[in-house]
Write a structure and sequence with these properties.
This protein is of the alpha+beta class and 216 residues long. The chain contains 7 helices and 8 strands, in the order H-E-H-H-E-E-E-H-E-E-E-E-H-H-H. It has one domain (3-109, 168-212). The radius of gyration is 17 Å and the shape is globular.
Length: 216
């Protein structure tokens, strides 16, 4: 993974949002974490973190956050009407908190692994909180490197969608559509099916970058 390119995309996205009168509230790229810190978290969680996630944590940043918002009077093309912000984030220290929340949803709302909807919440590891009760998570059923899936708590269209085959692919593709918001309606225009993942080279992605004026 070319981390310098990711840093450049973050800077380009932030600059462009500000140029068009939007708001960049936060850009945090903390230092990478150590192997020992990862081992401590894995022991606390009782699971081994996906290998591509660990690679990014150790080589890029152990705590990342970007928060941008389009201007209130922005007029998006119809297909991007739901896109209004970008809120990507992850942090090694946040994982236990997110996992506790996921287990709470399973215990109280989605307990049945035989149910088609409930089972999507099982055998996952949350790494990103959407903010509305939904989450981005690793599908821990994969014993090689976990795919990224969407967990909706309220029958969202993106429930169970695979966003990428692994974390590195996810960051690479997500960054090329401006790290649009975590809510499923913001990234769904850049998918073609529940298993396609985000396609940064598709027509919609190219149109979005052209509309927003992003060269990434």
């Amino acid at each position: 993974m070319d981390y310098e390119s990711i840093r450049e995309r973050i800077a380009t996205i932030s600059a462009r949002i500000q140029q068009i009168g939007g708001d960049v509230q936060e850009v945090v790229i903390d230092d990478p974490v150590s192997t020992e810190q990862i081992l401590q978290t894995e022991e606390k969680l009782g699971i081994e973190l996906p290998k591509s996630f660990k690679k990014v944590l150790q080589e890029f940043s152990g705590n990342f956050s970007l928060r941008w918002f389009l201007p209130d009077d922005s007029e998006q093309p119809d297909e991007f009407r739901g896109v209004f912000c970008g809120t990507p984030h992850w942090g090694l220290k946040l994982l236990p908190q997110f996992e506790e929340a996921r287990i709470g949803w399973i215990t109280n709302v989605f307990p049945n692994p035989e149910n088609e909807y409930d089972v999507v919440w099982h055998n996952k590891l949350v790494f990103c909180e959407v903010g509305n009760g939904d989450y981005l998570a690793f599908d821990m059923k994969d014993d090689t490197d976990a795919p990224i899936v969407y967990l909706s708590h309220d029958d969202g269209k993106g429930h169970g969608y695979k966003l990428a085959n692994n974390f590195i692919e996810f960051i690479e593709n997500w960054s090329r559509i401006g790290f649009v918001g975590c809510e499923d309606w913001q990234w769904l225009p850049f998918t073609t099916s529940s298993i396609s993942g985000i396609n940064p080279d598709g027509l919609e992605a190219k149109r979005f970058r052209t509309w927003l004026g992003l060269e990434i």
